[in-house]
Amino acid sequence: MTEFTYAASGVDIDAGERAVTLMKAAVERTNRPEVVGGLGGFAGLFALDTQKYRTPLLASSTDGVGTKIALARQLDRHDTVGIDLVAMVVDDLVACGAEPLFLQDYVACGKVVPERIAAIVTGIAAGCTQAGAALVGGETAEHGDLMEADEYDLAATAVGVVEADAVLGPERVRAGDVVVAMASSGFHSNGYSLVRRVVAAAGLDLSATPAGLDRPLGEELLEPTRIYAQDCLALVEAFGVDGVHAYAHITGGGLAGNTARVLPDGLEAVLDRGTWALPAAVRLMEEHGVPRAESERAFNCGVGMVAAVAPETADAVVARLDAAGVPAWVAGTVGPRTGDTAARLEGTYR
Fold first, then answer.
1. Primary place of residence (predicted)?
2. What is the Cα–Cα distance from 209 to 221, expressed in whole angstroms?
3. DSSP code, position 51
4. More confident call, 30 vs 305
5. Rounded CA gap, 262 and 269, in Å?
6. Residue 1 pLDDT more than 80?
7. 21, 171, 283, 285 - which has most CB atoms within 10 Å?
8. pTM over 0.85
């Protein structure tokens, strides 16, 4: 009789255990005082300090990295996409004013290569450290029948907390508010299906440095997503909800599309392109066939987060962000709606 083993079927339990051993130290460095227990349990435990909050609301967010992973595979560089994963989740959380508390990840792969899985999760841990969130557990699933050996995909869910009377959003935005833009670190984790198609069709060399860039294209495209969570929380701490009214995380849908999500009925945000320069990598995509209107929908075009703030607070908000290493500027204003859209871009990029 033929004997069948799990390993021969494509699932290597020993490799999975070795991956956990390799990533354990990085995960433990994300611990917060509220974490109960350690890595390896069936569930992550987190003790919410009920004395710290008056009326706490839990917030949750789930996301992935998308097809940026295909570039990571192509370049055999796996230590940055985990940061992207965390950013996509926690920067959504902070948009409502929530402090990220903890995160759990899910890694699906064709074959568990311990060193590769450890590199991915070490990146996730690095992102959690930047965000101030504990990585309380996760799952690595080996799907040899569904995925090629070097294929993988990532997802994560994070939980945060915000006081009920401190939730940010459209209800707080007023006519006269100022829109402060925060610079992105690159394409972040959106638009990569389009980016990869342009790269392939134009025959662009990922190891070459195109005109206008100061590093190889592959490095530019794998630059991790900037994590804004702690800087956004610090602004609320400094200026309160009377000074900071809303955040919009600029992801799929572009700057105008995402800014519109935090505006109440009857108001619009007008954003001036002339207040910043279109990134060279976006111009490269446009040079190879992406129309401007499409790039402004698919890419963040240099802005990864915006804040709607009280006008008297705007200069101090910009100064605080700049001091924290997040380039920021006044990009527009909020006023009565004059057209069909809640947010629009006008002018010409510098």
1. cytoplasm
2. 12
3. T
4. 305
5. 10
6. no
7. 285
8. yes
